[in-house]
């Protein structure tokens, strides 16, 4: 297979000059030749018109002479071809045709110059003559006798003259072309040589050799291009050094992270792994280029990777790998890969397990003193005990029994929710109805404290898709806390509104005008047994489990719960639950 010949810029520039010069010489030669030919033909026609008047006068002065003889006399005097034509087109005489051949000439009546002369005007024409086989310039005019006198001149001399001039011009053009070719070759070489140097340096820079520089002594634009390329290389080298430094800092930062970091390409191939990730997944040696299943073959992990490579950011997801409990997040990359971050929450998980075990064990342990207290209360029924002492003991036993019963109930509820023993059974419920039902048990205490209660909702969005008993328990726990810490004359309000931008979710707010919660405690109020003021909470009978139960019940519905508070101005507990779908109408 033949490889096409590629010309460098100097050769292309030289060939361009050469072609341009050739075209210029040819165009000038042809155009000047054509212009000169037309000019000479026009001059010949003008001369024929002038001579035609003289020839006409000469012919009219010899009425008795034969037309053929007169035509020869005029032709001899003027050096032109002279033809005398009758009105019917018959040739009567011709200075360049023998008398015997005149009679054989065809009729000239259709000749354009003859037709004009027969109409009384001077006719002109340039055409090839069939009788003499040469291109002629003709001029014809009527005579007083009624015939047509025509003068003709061959254009052979004109063509010969123009040809000589064109040959001279062509010779001069070739000579000029040779000189111009040499000059254009030298100019092209001089113009492209610095460009070639610049090109070689630019290609070396593109290949990564930023140490190359353009050493051009030429001025003007080429020198400016070389200086600009050198400046660009300096800036690029500086930027690359800065990027390399930042890359090293970033790599050191990632390597120092306690979280495991895996960078994957779009095909799930590992591009980078920090030491924490290597330790979590037991990776040894060179990990770049290994596939995802070589990191972990657990289905949950592989599913997490597939979701991450789909292009969506993934929030915290719990994964298990060996003895590690990991909290995994993913962020997509612009090139189609993803960065996976794994937080080891094994220690936290163990703490959760210990606390969960404690709740289960505590519920059982508390039943024993509860049984004892209840048995002691039975002994108090002895009629021998003084009445006042019996009443005092009875109230104490009863109060502790109720408190222990609440703790046991809360512990059992929390343990059942966390262990998965409780399942939500959602149905269409009215927030207003459940709120009033939950408040009923606090109405008397609120009346004694002069605490007002109100439900703010709109009939168009007052229904939820939730477990009625769970919602009742959530509101009961919120009302108990709110009433406990709201001073006399305060208010407790339930407000319901749709979540902005999420029509399928409803937001419920429980607001009170109580003493408020200090800001440092807000992130922890939903933890089990956590109390802002332990002494006061225990004195007033709190278990520290109410808000933890609220959080678990809301999250079991797929919702979220958060707290907002200001000291001395009250607290707002805000949570979301699914909206009940609109009922179909017939």
Q: Would you write up a description of this structure?
A:
Helices cover 51% and strands 19% of the residues. It is an alpha+beta fold and 586 residues long. It folds into four domains: 11-161, 2-Layer Sandwich (Beta-Lactamase), CATH 3.30.450.20; 257-344, Beta-Lactamase (2-Layer Sandwich), CATH 3.30.450.20; 349-418, Helix Hairpins (Orthogonal Bundle), CATH 1.10.287; 427-578, Histidine kinase-like ATPase, C-terminal domain (Heat Shock Protein 90, 2-Layer Sandwich). Strands 2-1-5-4-3 form a five-stranded antiparallel β-sheet, with helices on both faces. A five-stranded antiparallel β-sheet has the order 7-6-10-9-8, with helices on both faces. Strands 12-14-15-17-16 form a five-stranded mixed β-sheet. Strand 9 (324-332) and strand 10 (338-344) form a beta hairpin. Helix 11 (431-439) packs across helix 13 (468-485).
Mean pLDDT over all positions: 78
Shape: elongated
Helix content: 40-55%
Distance between the termini: 79 Å
Looking at CATH, the homologous superfamily of the largest domain is Histidine kinase-like ATPase, C-terminal domain
The biggest sheet amounts to:
5 strands, antiparallel
**Mind telling me the CATH class of the largest domain?**
Alpha Beta
Uncertain runs are none
| CATH architecture term of the largest domain | 2-Layer Sandwich
> Which secondary-structure class do the elements indicate?
alpha+beta
The total count of strands amounts to 17
Number of helical elements: 15
Domain module count: 4
Q: What radius of gyration results from the CA coordinates?
A: 58 Å
CATH topology of the largest domain: Heat Shock Protein 90
Widest sheet: strand order? 2-1-5-4-3
Task: Please state roughly what percent of the residues sit in beta strands, choosing from under 5%, 5-15%, 15-25%, 25-35%, 35-45% or over 45%.
Answer: 15-25%
């Amino acid at each position: 297979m033949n490889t096409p010949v590629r010309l460098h810029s100097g050769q292309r520039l030289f060939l361009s000059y050469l072609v341009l010069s050739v075209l210029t010489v040819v165009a000038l030669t042809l155009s000047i030749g054509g212009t000169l030919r037309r000019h000479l033909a026009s001059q010949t026609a003008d001369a024929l018109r002038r001579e035609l008047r003289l020839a006409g006068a000469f012919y009219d002065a010899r009425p008795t002479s034969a037309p053929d003889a007169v035509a020869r006399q005029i032709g001899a005097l003027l050096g032109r071809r002279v033809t005398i034509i009758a009105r019917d087109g018959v040739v009567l005489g011709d200075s360049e045709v023998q008398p015997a051949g005149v009679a054989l000439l065809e009729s000239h009546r259709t000749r354009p110059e003859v037709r004009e002369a027969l109409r009384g005007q001077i006719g002109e024409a340039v055409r090839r003559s069939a009788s003499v086989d040469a291109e002629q310039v003709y001029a014809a005019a009527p005579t007083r006798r009624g015939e047509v006198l025509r003068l003709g001149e061959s254009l052979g001399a004109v063509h010969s003259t123009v040809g000589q001039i064109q040959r001279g011009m062509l010779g001069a053009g070739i000579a000029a072309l040779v000189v111009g070719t040499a000059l254009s070759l030298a100019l092209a070489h001089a113009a492209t040589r610095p460009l070639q140097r610049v090109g070689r340096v630019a290609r070396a820079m593109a290949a990564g050799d930023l140490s190359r520089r353009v050493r051009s002594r030429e001025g003007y634009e080429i020198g400016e291009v070389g200086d600009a390329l050198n400046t660009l290389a300096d800036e690029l080298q500086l930027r690359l050094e800065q990027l390399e430094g930042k890359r090293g800092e970033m790599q050191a930062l990632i390597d120092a992270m306690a979280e495991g970091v895996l960078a994957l390409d779009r095909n799930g191939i590992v591009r980078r792994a920090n030491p924490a990730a290597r330790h979590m997944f037991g990776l040894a040696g060179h990990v770049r280029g290994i596939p995802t299943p070589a990191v972990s073959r657990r289905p949950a992990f592989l599913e997490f990777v597939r979701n991450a490579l789909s292009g969506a950011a993934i929030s915290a997801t719990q994964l298990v790998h060996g003895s590690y409990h990991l909290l995994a997040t993913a962020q997509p990359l612009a090139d189609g890969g993803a960065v996976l971050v794994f937080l080891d929450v094994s220690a936290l998980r163990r703490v959760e397990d210990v606390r969960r075990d404690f709740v289960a064990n505590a519920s059982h342990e508390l039943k024993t003193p509860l049984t004892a207290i209840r048995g002691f209360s039975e002994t108090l029924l002895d009629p021998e005990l003084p009445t006042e002492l019996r009443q005092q003991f009875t109230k104490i036993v009863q109060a502790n029994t109720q408190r222990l019963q609440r703790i046991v109930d809360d512990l059992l509820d929390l343990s059942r929710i966390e262990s998965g023993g409780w399942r939500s059974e959602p149905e269409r419920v009215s927030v207003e109805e459940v709120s009033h039902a939950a408040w009923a048990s606090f109405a008397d205490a609120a009346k004694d404290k002069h605490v007002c209660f109100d439900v703010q909702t709109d009939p168009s969005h007052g229904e939820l898709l939730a477990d009625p008993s769970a919602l009742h328990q959530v509101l009961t726990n919120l009302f108990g806390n709110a009433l406990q810490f709201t001073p006399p004359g305060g208010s407790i309000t339930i407000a319901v509104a749709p979540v902005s931008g999420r029509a399928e979710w409803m937001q419920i707010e429980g607001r009170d005008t109580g003493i408020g919660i200090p800001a440092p405690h807000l992130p922890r109020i939903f933890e089990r047994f956590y109390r802002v003021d332990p002494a006061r909470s225990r004195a007033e009978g709190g278990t520290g489990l109410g808000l933890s139960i609220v959080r678990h019940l809301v999250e079991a519905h797929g919702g979220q719960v958060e707290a907002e508070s200001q000291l001395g101005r009250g607290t707002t507990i805000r949570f979301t639950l699914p909206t009940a779908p609109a009922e179909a109408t017939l």
